[in-house]
Amino acid sequence: MAEQATNQLSEDLVNFLQGEQIVLLASIDAENGSPNILCISWLLATGPTTLRLAIDGRSKLLQNIAKNDLVTVTVLGLGTATAITGRAKQYIDKLAGVSLNMAGVEISIDAVRDVMFYGGKLTNQLVADKTYDKTLAKKYDTEIFTALRH
């Protein structure tokens, strides 16, 4: 059964969201007001009330949050589904020390809810295989997570 909302991440969620986790990020489309969903892995918790993520500097997400800053991050892990709602802002145009053109977005957390259906438990961890050059993938991951931590 879904738990009541809290206003911060548990210690387990903070530890879980230290990079390379696959999450869904929902924003409101700036043009038509419909939900806009992204699947991302360059996200980390910097503490119990803040998430940071790296996003392509040309991403529609940046337009969306400039118009309406409300977002939801859905995390599938730790045996459950968790919805994290908050307000997003672009805090930097280009992440320092990152080869790619990546902007930094910070989410101030308003609510954290367990949204797993009654009687359900996730038994497997989501894993993504990077289909491009593995050495380059590791380089980008290292650059981005270093930048997000500063």
UniProtKB/TrEMBL annotation:
<dbReference type="InterPro" id="IPR012349">
    <property type="entry name" value="Split_barrel_FMN-bd"/>
</dbReference>
<feature type="domain" description="Pyridoxamine 5'-phosphate oxidase N-terminal">
    <location>
        <begin position="10"/>
        <end position="93"/>
    </location>
</feature>
<dbReference type="InterPro" id="IPR011576">
    <property type="entry name" value="Pyridox_Oxase_N"/>
</dbReference>
<dbReference type="Pfam" id="PF01243">
    <property type="entry name" value="PNPOx_N"/>
</dbReference>
<protein>
    <recommendedName>
        <fullName>Pyridoxamine 5'-phosphate oxidase N-terminal domain-containing protein</fullName>
    </recommendedName>
</protein>
